[in-house]
Amino acid sequence: MTEPDPSETLFERIIAREIPAEIVHETDTTLAFRDISPQAATHVLVVPKTRYRNVGELAAADPALLAEVITTAHRVAELEGLVDGGYRVVFNTGSDAGQTVFHVHAHVLGGEQLGHFGRYAG
C-alpha cells in the first residue's frame, strides 16, 4: 500500500473510498456524507469531487459545480425529511469562520430547532 499524498485532504480520501464514511447521496460531481462530529440532529457534508479550497474559489472557477453542490444539499434535505421543518446550508470560508478542511464543503443542518449563529460565544 502506498502512502497517502500529504497534499490530499481528508475529503479527497473519503471520495476515493480510502476512508470510510456514511454516504447519504452521490452524483457524478458531488458526494454527501454524515459529519463525524454532528452539530445538529442531522448534519451532512456535501463536497464537490473536484477540490477547491473554499466556496469563493469554487464560485469563481466553476459556478455550475457550485450550483450542483447546492442542488445536492437540497436533495439531502429531502432525503433526510428536513424540507418541511427547515434546514440550514452553511459554508465556512477560512479558519476564522471555522473551516478546518480546505476542500470546499456545505454543511446541511437540521432535524431540530437550530440556534442563531454569528459571534463566537466561547
What does this protein look like?
The active site is at residue 105. Residues 10-119 form the HIT domain. This protein has 122 residues and is of the alpha+beta class. 25% of the residues lie in helices and 20% in strands. It has 3 helices and 5 strands, in the order H-E-E-E-H-H-E-E. A 5-stranded antiparallel sheet has the order 1-2-3-5-4, with helices on one face. Helix 2 (55-61) crosses helix 3. It starts with 9 loop residues before the first helix and ends in a 12-residue tail after the last strand. Residues 1-5 have low confidence and may be disordered.
List the helices and strands and how they pair.
Layout: H1 10-15, E1 23-26, E2 30-34, E3 42-48, H2 55-61, H3 63-79, E4 87-90, E5 106-110
Antiparallel strand pairs: 1-2, 2-3, 3-5, 4-5
Helix pairs in contact: 2-3
Number of DSSP E strands: 5
**Percent range for β-strand residues:** 15-25%
Biggest sheet features:
5 strands, antiparallel
Quaternary structure annotation: single chain
Q: What gap, in angstroms, lies between the N and C termini? A: 42 Å
Placed side by side, the strands forming the largest sheet appear as 1-2-3-5-4
Number of domains: 1
Question: What is the succession of H and E elements?
Answer: HEEEHHEE
Number of helices: 3
Rg, rounded, reads 14 Å
Low-confidence stretches: 1-5
Question: What fraction, in percent, of the residue positions are helical?
Answer: 10-25%
Mean pLDDT: 91
Output the structural class. Answer: alpha+beta
- Shape estimate: globular
What CATH first level would be assigned?
Answer: Alpha Beta
CATH superfamily: HIT-like
Domain HIT: 10-119
Protein name: Histidine triad (HIT) family protein
Motif (Histidine triad motif): 103-107
GO molecular function, one term: catalytic activity
